[in-house]
Amino acid sequence: MFHPLSVYVGLRYVRARSHTFFVSFITWASLVGVGVGVASLIVILSVMNGFEGELRDRLLSLSAQVRVTAAATTPAGSQAGPGVADWRNAARIVQGAAGVEGVAPYAELQALAVRRPEMLPVLLRGIDPRAAGSVTELAHAITQGHLADLTPGSGRIIVGEVIAERLGLAPGDSLTVLVPTVDVGGAPAPKLREFTVAGTFEVGLPDHDATLVFAHLADVRALAPQGAASEGLRVRVHDVLAAAAVAARLRALLPGSFEVSDWTQDNANYFRAIRIEKTMMSLILLLIVAVAAFNIVAMLVMVVTDKRTDIAIVRTLGASPWRVMGIFITQGLVIGWLGVALGVVLGLALALHVDTIVPFLQRTFRFQILDAEVYYNTAIPAEVHWRNIVAIALAALLLTTLATLYPAIRAARTAPAEALRYE
């Protein structure tokens, strides 16, 4: 099909200036359309990758990358959970596993933060500040106070910025924490404790800033009724994207009395929603390339009609239908692939400089894309994934290649006698 003569003639048709204005216009519109579609796909997916990475970093700022907790039931079916010796042995096993950077115990307790006249539901999390394996990110997120202020028996806590704002808290203020419990007779018997606010933190995620309260592990264990606190081990891994593999490794190493989960399971809904949005956005933007491909079809059909005499002459000189097809497929591919190359270059240029282009547009046209009063993050992040670039380019090349088939087949079926009858 792609005989050197077919390729040569096809390239001549691309460079020829004898086309009508309308054919030339459609040719350029097709090339620009393919380029704009490819560039839009690259930029939008890169920005969505950037927001996904930003969300992942914020979610993992205070969430466990891998968690080890007590199983609901032991393999034998008893309700007895692991003892202190079991937890210590589990911590040694986890610390020695491949890919693990650090491990630390924690305890979580559902409670109410009370400061008249307000009351907020919070998650009281007990940590050991000396175990850097699970609290490194918290140290970076603290806006007031110090992590070292959390000492055993001190009754000090670090609260999220949103909690502090809603309850009017500042370092040094007191806050009552109420743990709803029931006595042996089933009557409500809440436990209360007065804590002192030692500091605040902010990670830019409402799920953390508006619900989390940190205290020392010993203080949370002392406040929690028997069996009310959720205890376990928080595991920090070397590569956060390999957390699922590390979790699978730990499941094989630990006894059946423990359960292991990772951040991809804990936040599956967030990333599933992003994946669906990226898929739908890709399909929508791919329609731009599809429209440009239809323009290539229209342009080639008009060229075939215009070149019927040339086709007939070539056929009478002995060219096979396949060689005729090669002429117009070459012409269409050159236009389509030039558009794809233009789109890839333009898309990469925009995606790699989003952090410069967006502020320039906002200053020039005096508008804010992400309002600081609504969004925690006002910057537009972008992450270029080469896998996405290759997939976009291949999809566009496939569409433009398919667009050349019908006009090429129509040209190959041109009857020489019919085309030359009135010449």
Lay out the secondary structure.
Blueprint: H1 4-15, H2 21-62, E1 66-70, H3 84-96, E2 100-115, E3 118-127, H4 132-141, E4 142-144, E5 156-160, H5 161-167, E6 174-179, E7 191-201, H6 206-209, E8 212-216, H7 217-223, E9 230-237, H8 243-253, E10 258-262, H9 263-266, H10 268-306, H11 308-316, H12 321-352, H13 354-365, H14 386-403, H15 405-412, H16 416-420
Parallel strand pairs: 3-8, 5-7
Antiparallel strand pairs: 1-9, 1-10, 2-3, 2-6, 2-9, 4-7, 5-8, 6-7
Helix pairs in contact: 1-12, 2-10, 2-12, 2-14, 10-12, 10-14, 10-15, 12-14, 12-15
Tell me, rounded to a whole number, the average pLDDT.
Answer: 82
Shape: elongated
Strand content: 15-25%
Unreliable runs: none
Give the class from helix and strand content and strand pairing.
alpha+beta
Helix-residue proportion = 55-70%
Q: How many β-strand stretches? A: 10
- Biggest sheet strand order reads 2-3-8-5-7-6
The ordered string of helix (H) and strand (E) elements is HHEHEEHEEHEEHEHEHEHHHHHHHH
Q: What can be said about the biggest beta sheet?
A: 6 strands, mixed, barrel
How far apart are the first and last residues' alpha carbons, in Å? 28 Å
| Discrete helix count | 16
Round the Cα radius of gyration to an integer and report it: 33 Å
Q: What is the total number of structural domains?
A: 2
